[in-house]
Structure formats: C-alpha cells, structure tokens
C-alpha cells in the first residue's frame, strides 16, 4: 500500500519546521550555558524561546499526525502561524527596545520566575511586555543584527513557512 504522497510531503515540511525551531532553541541554550562568555536571557528572550517551542510543538504534532485533508493541514499550520506570529510580535518589541536610547528604555523588571510566583502568569506576561531595561542591552551580533533581530527574522520565516505548508494549493 502506497502512503499518501501529500501526507508525506506535509510530514516532511512539518519536520523541517520542527528541526529549524529545535536548532534555534539549541543555539539559544548554547549561548546561555557555554563556558566562555555566557549570555543570560532577559525576560523577552525567555518569552521568545517559549514561542519557538510552541511553534516547534505545532510542527511536531503536524508531522506526527500528517493529515491527508486540507482542513487538518490548515489546523496544524494555523497553530504554527499563531505561535510564530506571537513570537514575531515579542521579538519586534524587543528589537524596538534595543533601538531606544539608554535613558529612554523602560525600567528593568524582576526575574520572570519571581513575577509569575508573585502575581500570576497573565500579570507577569503583561509586565514583561511593558518593558525591561536589560532587554535593551545588546551583547551579541551577527552580520550586524542582534539576537532579537535574528529572532524576528526567523519568526517571520517560520510564519511564511507555516503559511506555505498549510495553505498552498496542492
């Protein structure tokens, strides 16, 4: 019995999205835990990691299920689109904060785990998104772009990929 070629194509495309997210998260953890010059993530960096993980989970579920119908493909692609769009919004905010002059940056917030314990998840997310001075500090660049800028580039790429995977005409 031959497997559905469209299902295999969807599975491979979701696996590629998953592998991309895993590689990006791997690099983020490498920069945090390396022995020489480790980079501590700020609160917005942590939220971007959560968005990459959510995007990866959507691609993983799509790859495991590999629905044959267009509706099923659109559900998984829609989940990946949503997660990557949220990540892009967080990354865009982070990039904006890095462009502000140091004296105009919002004040630095408390560590994320403390904020969650003290005031709950929703309030902690609201506080993180309203600014953190440490998030304005650029410790790393590659080809002239900071890590938040690269995150934004990758979120947009993943958003476009999810749209292609789930909504292109077969």
Automatic annotation (TrEMBL):
Disulfide bonds: 42-45
Main localization of the protein described in the UniProt heading: membrane
Membrane topology: Multi-pass membrane protein
Gene3D superfamilies in alphabetical order: DsbB-like
One Gene Ontology term from the biological process aspect of the record: protein folding
A GO term from the CC aspect: plasma membrane
Transmembrane segments: 12-31, 46-64, 76-96, 149-167
Function description: Required for disulfide bond formation in some periplasmic proteins. Acts by oxidizing the DsbA protein.
Record's protein name: Disulfide bond formation protein B
Species this chain originates from: Agrilutibacter solisilvae
Gene transcribed to yield this protein: dsbB
């Amino acid at each position: 019995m031959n497997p559905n070629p469209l299902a295999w194509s969807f599975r491979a495309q979701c696996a590629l999205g998953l592998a991309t997210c895993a590689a990006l998260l791997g690099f983020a953890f490498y920069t945090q835990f390396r022995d020489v010059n480790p980079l501590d993530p700020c609160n917005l960096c942590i939220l971007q990691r959560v968005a990459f993980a959510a995007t990866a989970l959507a691609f993983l579920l799509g790859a495991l299920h590999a629905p044959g119908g267009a509706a099923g493909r659109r559900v998984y692609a829609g989940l990946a689109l949503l997660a990557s769009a949220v990540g892009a919004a967080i990354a865009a905010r982070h990039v904006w904060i890095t462009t502000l002059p140091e004296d105009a940056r919002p004040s630095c917030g408390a560590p994320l785990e403390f904020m969650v314990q003290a005031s709950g998840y929703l309030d902690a997310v609201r506080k993180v998104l309203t600014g953190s001075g440490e998030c304005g500090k650029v410790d790393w660049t590659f080809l002239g772009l900071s890590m938040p800028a690269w995150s934004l580039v990758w979120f947009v790429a993943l958003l476009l990929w999810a749209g292609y995977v789930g909504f292109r005409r077969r």
